[in-house]
Amino acid sequence: MSTKHNQKGQVKWFSQERGYGYITNNEKKDLYFGVKDIEGAELPENGDIVFFTEYIGKENTSAATDIKIFERKNPKLKRVHCKGCERKVEPKPWYYGGSDYTTVSIVLLCPFCGYRISKKGGGFNTFAKIILGVFVLALSFVFYKII
Ligand SMILES: [Zn+2]
Fold it and tell me: Residue 94 Cα, ligand 1 centroid: separation in angstroms?
Protein backbone atom coordinates (compact mmCIF):
# COMPACT_ATOMS: atom_id res chain seq x y z
CA MET A 1 0.00 0.00 0.00
CA SER A 2 1.54 3.30 -1.04
CA THR A 3 0.81 6.38 0.99
CA LYS A 4 1.45 10.08 0.45
CA HIS A 5 1.51 12.07 3.64
CA ASN A 6 0.75 15.75 4.16
CA GLN A 7 -1.33 16.25 1.07
CA LYS A 8 -3.40 19.37 0.83
CA GLY A 9 -6.79 19.38 -0.79
CA GLN A 10 -10.28 20.76 -0.74
CA VAL A 11 -13.42 19.03 0.46
CA LYS A 12 -15.54 18.63 -2.65
CA TRP A 13 -18.49 17.12 -0.91
CA PHE A 14 -19.18 15.60 2.47
CA SER A 15 -22.38 14.26 3.95
CA GLN A 16 -22.66 13.90 7.70
CA GLU A 17 -25.76 11.73 7.29
CA ARG A 18 -24.10 9.32 4.88
CA GLY A 19 -20.76 9.43 6.67
CA TYR A 20 -18.51 9.86 3.67
CA GLY A 21 -17.31 12.37 1.14
CA TYR A 22 -14.68 13.34 -1.41
CA ILE A 23 -11.58 15.50 -1.29
CA THR A 24 -10.12 17.00 -4.46
CA ASN A 25 -6.34 16.78 -4.33
CA ASN A 26 -3.72 18.95 -6.07
CA GLU A 27 -3.97 16.80 -9.20
CA LYS A 28 -7.72 17.50 -9.38
CA LYS A 29 -8.42 13.89 -8.48
CA ASP A 30 -11.32 13.10 -6.16
CA LEU A 31 -10.45 10.90 -3.21
CA TYR A 32 -12.98 9.03 -1.14
CA PHE A 33 -12.99 9.36 2.63
CA GLY A 34 -15.14 8.07 5.44
CA VAL A 35 -16.13 9.79 8.64
CA LYS A 36 -13.64 7.60 10.54
CA ASP A 37 -10.79 9.08 8.46
CA ILE A 38 -11.34 12.49 10.02
CA GLU A 39 -9.07 13.41 12.90
CA GLY A 40 -10.61 15.20 15.83
CA ALA A 41 -14.21 15.91 16.66
CA GLU A 42 -14.84 18.59 14.07
CA LEU A 43 -16.34 17.51 10.79
CA PRO A 44 -15.33 19.11 7.52
CA GLU A 45 -17.71 21.00 5.31
CA ASN A 46 -17.81 21.52 1.57
CA GLY A 47 -15.04 23.84 0.44
CA ASP A 48 -12.82 23.41 3.50
CA ILE A 49 -9.09 23.09 2.92
CA VAL A 50 -7.70 19.97 4.57
CA PHE A 51 -4.47 18.09 5.12
CA PHE A 52 -4.63 14.34 4.61
CA THR A 53 -2.77 11.16 3.82
CA GLU A 54 -3.48 9.68 0.42
CA TYR A 55 -3.44 5.93 0.06
CA ILE A 56 -4.57 3.22 -2.31
CA GLY A 57 -7.72 1.76 -0.91
CA LYS A 58 -9.98 -1.08 -1.92
CA GLU A 59 -10.41 -1.74 -5.63
CA ASN A 60 -7.18 0.20 -6.29
CA THR A 61 -8.81 3.58 -5.92
CA SER A 62 -7.19 6.50 -4.15
CA ALA A 63 -8.60 7.43 -0.80
CA ALA A 64 -7.85 9.91 1.95
CA THR A 65 -7.29 9.34 5.65
CA ASP A 66 -5.85 11.25 8.68
CA ILE A 67 -7.84 14.27 7.58
CA LYS A 68 -7.19 17.47 9.47
CA ILE A 69 -9.05 20.68 8.80
CA PHE A 70 -6.60 23.38 7.77
CA GLU A 71 -8.91 26.21 6.83
CA ARG A 72 -12.66 26.59 7.05
CA LYS A 73 -14.44 28.02 4.04
CA ASN A 74 -17.03 29.44 6.43
CA PRO A 75 -15.19 29.85 9.69
CA LYS A 76 -17.25 29.05 12.71
CA LEU A 77 -16.45 30.18 16.16
CA LYS A 78 -15.61 27.39 18.50
CA ARG A 79 -18.01 26.60 21.28
CA VAL A 80 -16.58 27.70 24.57
CA HIS A 81 -17.51 27.41 28.19
CA CYS A 82 -19.15 30.62 29.41
CA LYS A 83 -18.16 31.53 32.94
CA GLY A 84 -21.20 33.80 33.18
CA CYS A 85 -23.96 31.25 32.68
CA GLU A 86 -22.01 27.96 32.77
CA ARG A 87 -23.22 26.99 29.30
CA LYS A 88 -21.34 25.77 26.25
CA VAL A 89 -21.93 28.61 23.85
CA GLU A 90 -20.95 29.82 20.40
CA PRO A 91 -19.61 33.28 21.14
CA LYS A 92 -21.11 36.20 19.30
CA PRO A 93 -18.53 38.60 17.88
CA TRP A 94 -19.13 42.24 18.59
CA TYR A 95 -17.07 44.79 16.74
CA TYR A 96 -16.26 48.20 18.03
CA GLY A 97 -13.93 50.93 16.91
CA GLY A 98 -11.52 52.78 19.09
CA SER A 99 -12.28 56.40 19.90
CA ASP A 100 -9.93 57.51 17.12
CA TYR A 101 -11.13 54.77 14.71
CA THR A 102 -7.58 53.57 14.16
CA THR A 103 -8.22 50.39 16.06
CA VAL A 104 -11.10 48.02 15.64
CA SER A 105 -11.49 45.37 18.26
CA ILE A 106 -13.60 42.28 18.38
CA VAL A 107 -15.08 41.24 21.65
CA LEU A 108 -16.66 37.82 21.96
CA LEU A 109 -19.85 37.87 23.96
CA CYS A 110 -22.02 35.08 25.27
CA PRO A 111 -25.29 35.11 23.28
CA PHE A 112 -27.25 34.11 26.40
CA CYS A 113 -25.94 36.27 29.20
CA GLY A 114 -23.72 38.78 27.42
CA TYR A 115 -20.64 37.72 29.38
CA ARG A 116 -17.43 38.90 27.77
CA ILE A 117 -15.72 35.67 26.82
CA SER A 118 -12.55 36.93 25.19
CA LYS A 119 -11.13 39.71 23.20
CA LYS A 120 -9.63 39.31 19.78
CA GLY A 121 -7.37 41.81 18.14
CA GLY A 122 -6.08 44.93 19.80
CA GLY A 123 -2.94 43.01 20.65
CA PHE A 124 -0.84 46.15 20.65
CA ASN A 125 -3.25 47.85 23.03
CA THR A 126 -2.98 44.97 25.48
CA PHE A 127 0.81 45.08 25.20
CA ALA A 128 0.80 48.86 25.68
CA LYS A 129 -1.40 48.47 28.77
CA ILE A 130 1.03 45.96 30.29
CA ILE A 131 4.00 48.26 29.62
CA LEU A 132 2.07 51.19 31.08
CA GLY A 133 1.09 49.08 34.08
CA VAL A 134 4.70 48.09 34.74
CA PHE A 135 5.80 51.68 34.27
CA VAL A 136 3.20 53.01 36.71
CA LEU A 137 4.11 50.30 39.20
CA ALA A 138 7.82 51.14 38.93
CA LEU A 139 7.05 54.84 39.27
CA SER A 140 4.90 54.34 42.35
CA PHE A 141 7.67 52.20 43.82
CA VAL A 142 10.15 55.01 43.26
CA PHE A 143 7.79 57.53 44.85
CA TYR A 144 7.26 55.20 47.78
CA LYS A 145 11.03 55.06 48.30
CA ILE A 146 11.34 58.85 48.18
CA ILE A 147 8.52 59.41 50.67
ZN1 LIG B 1 -23.23 33.01 29.23
Answer: 15
All structural domains of the chain with their residue ranges: 3-71, 80-146
Residue-level pLDDT at 118? 72
In order of 16, 44, 81, 109, the CA distances from 71 in angstroms are: 18, 10, 23, 23
Structural element, H or E, at residue 1: none
Exposed / middle / buried, residue 45 (Cβ in 10 Å: 0-12, 13-18, 19+): middle
DSSP string across 82-113: -TTT--EE-PEEEEEE-TTSS-EEEEEE-TTT
What is the value of pTM for the model shown? 0.53
Ligand 1: centre distance to CA 114 (Å): 6
Segments of the chain with pLDDT less than 50: 121-123
Whole-number Å distance between alpha carbons of 38 and 52? 9
Query: 75 CA to middle of ligand 1, Å?
Result: 21
Cα 93 to ligand 1 centroid, rounded to whole Å: 13
pLDDT given at position 40: 84
Residue range 3-71, CATH number: 2.40.50.140
